[in-house]
Amino acid sequence: MSEERGGVESGERAPVFVGIRHHSPAGARFIRELLREKRPACVLIEAPADFESLIDRLADPALKPPFAVMAYTTEAPVRSVLYPFAVYSPEYRALLAARELGIPVAFCDLPSSYMLGLQGAVERYLDRKRDEAAEKEAESAAEPDDMEGFWERYLEQSPTLEDYLERSRIFGEEVRAAMPGERFEQAHNAVREAYMRRVIAEKIAAGIPADRLVVLTGAFHTPALSAGELLDDAALQKLPQCKAKLTLMPYSYRRLSSRSGYAAGNRAPAYYELLWKALAAGKPEGHAARYLSALAVHIRERGGLVSSAEVLEATLLAESLTRLREGVYPTHEELKDAAVTCLGHGSFGEIAEGIALTDIGTKIGHVPMSGLLTSIQRDFADQCADLKLNFGPVAEKLRLDLRENRRAKSEKSAFLQLRRSFFLQRLRLLGIGFAALQGSRQQDASWEENWVLSRTPEAEMQLAEAVLKGDTIAHAVSFDLQEKLTATEQIAEITELLESAFLCGMPELLQAAVSRLDSASIDQISIEEIARTAKILSCMLQFGDVRQSDVSVLRPILERLLLRAGLTLTDACFCDDEAAGHLAKSIEEIQSIFSVEKGLPSEKWEHAIRELSRRDDLNAKLSGLATAIRLDLGDLGEEELSQEISCRMSVGLRAELGALWFEGLSLRNHYALIVRRVVWESLSRYIDAIPEDCWQRAMVFLRRAFATYTAGEKDMVAENLAEFWGLQKEQVSEVLNAELSREESQALESFDFDDF
After folding, report:
1. CA atoms within 13 A on the CB side of 373
2. Would you state the pLDDT for residue 500?
3. Alpha helices of 615-676 — where are they, by DSSP H?
4. From CA 166, how far away is CA 84, in angstroms rounded?
5. Cα distances (angstroms) measured from residue 353 to each of 283, 307, 348, 363
6. How far is CA 108 from CA 47, 199, 211, 236, 453, in A?
7. pLDDT tens for residues 294-339?
8. CA angle (568 as vertex; 564, 571 as ends), nearest 5
9. Residue 532, in any domain of the structure
10. Can you give the residue range of the structural domain that contains 336?
11. Burial 235-245 (b: 16+ CB within 10 A, else e)
């Protein structure tokens, strides 16, 4: 650091230092008043010096607060810093007022490249020196209990500019003395303040009279700027630095709130906008009525009952509390107390939602297209134009047919819908909410997709922040997927990432995911994991041509997984009834893959299915399902089926086990069973042979077996059984369609399938 003072202390003349609290309506009001009164030669504002390149954009009337300037690194590790602005931020109002008056504006804090470099140093230091408990203790000790309440009481209510300047000076000095922070934090602030003093000195050296220079900074920094060392070039070059870029992005009051974790925010951004409007209009006395009226509207919109008389009563109570506490107008806490008493009838819960909306609000800013500075924002705009996609404020439906349009005149036009799908899938993967995927008439990765498109401020924010992952949407997707692939060892997660690469049209990432999946599939895998993975791979193989993706490399992996399924199936079927329910779905999924994908090696699987159907030491429900699969495959003749039913549903066995086996048999292709006379003939003989003391219990379980049948299918079953029993079809149908009683349900619940 340099020992020179650079004119910061130059005789009797000195700059006009204005200490503020970020996002302070009073600060915004008085800085505007100060500039109009003094007409200085230059205004310095606490913000990174390189923000000067954005001054024209920041003053653009089309830019609607809240918004933020984001500085971000262009190289790994990715870091960013955000500088939000509300309509009442003193820095923003100072900029607008200076532009209106023709006063030059400059920013005086460390450039963002150094801010990001120091951020990395801070992170490394904290990782090395602090544990979580110590950090929390330091944070809690560093900040008074109600800083915001104190500021609002004594500084927001300053009657004059002179009072505000004096109070902010004293406030800054006291806070600085009360919150010294730890040595590293002190050093960080010292570097920034030395740079600010350097900028002040440079302006004075350039010929600007010191007393015609207005310096707007946080009240904490103001006491340190009138004297001290300057940050010279040698010291500046020693600071860590990162290559950085800047952009504007929409912001929200929700994120501006200190309740979201933003340290420099306030608890109630929407409340302070109401206060700003009252102060700007010169009518702070009307603030209470305006706030409570807005709160009443929110309460009524949500079904609450609030009368105009209650709003008036709350206003009078708030004003009375203010006089009692010797305030100028009601503070936020006084307004809440009055609202709870008069509008909530003593209960905060009754008005909590209304309070949240009135205090924090849902406001989101807007950045015009001219203000979009990042490459990813420009890439988004270019792709929207190329793909003829219009994201408007009103949600619109978009149906995509991904098949090649053979009537198109060019290849680009022929695959327009597919290219749209890739683009929208990439946005979805990055969490950029311009498009939401809806359900389709087709299943899985078919040729049809249905989307809902809308341009929302939240999505604009998400798009701007996605630049931290890449300069373009494709690069951001690649970074995101690669990072996730590196971090996971789970086959289910790898498969999901593989599918994402497929849906996004990212062949390089698809190949990388295939390699990871190939390695992961060697390890031990459950039948459920095999089924989930195989189902996704099968869908990709089916629709690879539609999506113009070479997925042939997936087939060997699918074959290996299905081979493993065949080798491990019987061992997995030593399970209880609850596990059998999940396993049955997996068995069905794997069998459906063999049905769809022709040419897959199915010998081991079919052998396992035959063994499962024949064994009586495995879960009876799964054995019944295996028998149904054999029936569908034509691997089970009428005579063998009759023998199997007779064996499984024998009077010598517990009725519950027979019913459980029949339930498994009924899980597939009901019509294939209904048309087979031998099934119902065998079932009739079984029911006739059940001892009287077991008959009712067996019926309960058999009725559960028919639970998956439709009413029409039950009627057909009833017709078959009625023929053997010599009864009317309606009589049997009534029994089959009857709901289980409470006692019957308890009988099912009390049966312990683990014993068999």
Report:
1. 19
2. 93
3. 620-633, 638-648, 655-665, 670-674
4. 27
5. 28, 18, 9, 16
6. 6, 6, 17, 14, 42
7. 999 999 998 888 999 999 999 999 999 989 888 888 999 999 999 9
8. 175
9. no
10. 269-359
11. bbeebebbebb
